[in-house]
C-alpha cells in the first residue's frame, strides 16, 4: 500500500515538474518575442524619424522676399526639374528660379505681356506638359487671329509661353506693336516674351517644370 502511494507521489511530482518546465519555456519564449517586437517597433520609429528628417531637408526651401513682404517663395517643384517659373501679372514679368548651394537663386527675369482684363491669363500652379510637337515647337499659328509666334511652350490647355507676334513664319515679319506692348497686358491669355527670352525658354525649360502664376507683385524677388 505504502509502495503504491509512493509510486503515485513520484508520478505526480514528475507531472508537476514537466508542467513547471513547460511553463518556464513558454514564459522565456514570450519574453523573447516581446523583446523582439519592441526592437522592431523602435526600429520602425527610428526609420520613420530618419525618413521625416530626410524629407524635411530634401529640396524644400522657403524664402521670404523681404521683411515688409508677406510673399514667400519656395523651392517646391524643383525636385524634378532644375528650374521653377514664377509669373507676376502685376509686374508683367517672368522670373526663372534655380536651386544653388541649398538656396533659391534668381536665374533670369523676362519682361512679358499677359492676358488683357477681358481675356486674362489664369493664375495658379501648373506642371508643364511633356515635350512633344503639340506642346513645344519653333513656330505656332493662331488661326483665329491669323498670326504666328516663335518658340512656343504650352503651360495649360490653350495657354502658352511664346514670342511676340509675326504676320507669317518668317523672323523678318515681326509685328512691331506686339514688341511695344511687352510690359503691358496685351494677349488673349498666353504669356508673350521677347524672341530672345522665348528662345531661352524653348531651349532650357522642359516638361514637368512647375509654373506658378500669381496676380500680385514679386518685385522684391530681385533681391534674392
UniProtKB/TrEMBL annotation:
Keyword Lipid biosynthesis: no
Domain L,D-TPase catalytic: 83-214
Chain ranges passing through the membrane: 12-30
Any one GO MF annotation of this record: transferase activity
PROSITE patterns per record: LD_TPASE
Pfam families given in the database record: YkuD
Active site: 162, 190
UniProt entry tagged with the keyword Cell wall biogenesis/degradation: yes
Biological-process GO terms, alphabetical: cell wall organization; peptidoglycan-protein cross-linking; regulation of cell shape
Protein name per Swiss-Prot or TrEMBL: L,D-transpeptidase catalytic domain
Organism field: Caloramator quimbayensis
Amino acid at each position: 500500500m505504502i509502495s503504491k502511494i509512493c509510486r503515485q507521489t513520484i508520478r505526480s511530482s514528475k507531472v508537476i515538474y514537466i508542467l513547471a518546465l513547460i511553463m518556464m519555456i513558454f514564459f522565456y519564449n514570450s519574453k523573447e518575442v516581446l523583446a523582439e517586437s519592441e526592437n522592431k517597433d523602435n526600429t520602425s520609429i527610428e526609420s520613420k524619424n530618419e525618413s521625416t528628417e530626410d524629407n524635411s531637408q530634401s529640396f524644400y526651401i522657403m524664402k521670404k522676399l523681404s521683411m515688409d513682404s508677406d510673399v514667400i517663395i519656395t523651392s517646391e517643384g524643383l525636385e524634378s526639374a532644375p528650374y521653377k517659373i514664377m509669373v507676376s501679372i502685376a509686374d508683367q514679368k517672368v522670373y526663372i528660379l534655380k536651386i544653388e548651394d541649398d538656396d533659391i537663386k534668381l536665374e533670369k527675369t523676362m519682361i512679358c505681356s499677359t492676358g488683357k482684363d477681358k481675356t486674362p491669363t489664369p493664375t495658379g500652379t501648373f506642371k508643364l506638359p511633356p515635350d512633344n510637337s503639340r506642346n513645344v515647337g519653333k513656330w505656332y499659328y493662331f488661326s483665329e487671329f491669323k498670326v504666328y509666334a516663335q518658340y512656343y511652350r504650352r503651360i495649360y490647355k490653350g495657354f502658352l509661353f511664346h514670342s511676340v507676334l509675326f504676320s507669317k513664319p518668317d523672323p523678318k515679319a515681326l509685328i512691331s506693336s506686339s514688341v511695344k506692348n511687352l510690359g503691358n497686358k496685351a494677349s488673349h491669355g498666353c504669356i508673350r516674351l521677347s524672341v530672345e527670352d522665348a528662345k531661352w525658354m524653348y531651349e532650357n525649360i522642359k516638361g514637368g517644370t512647375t509654373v506658378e502664376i500669381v496676380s500680385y507683385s514679386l518685385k522684391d524677388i530681385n533681391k534674392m
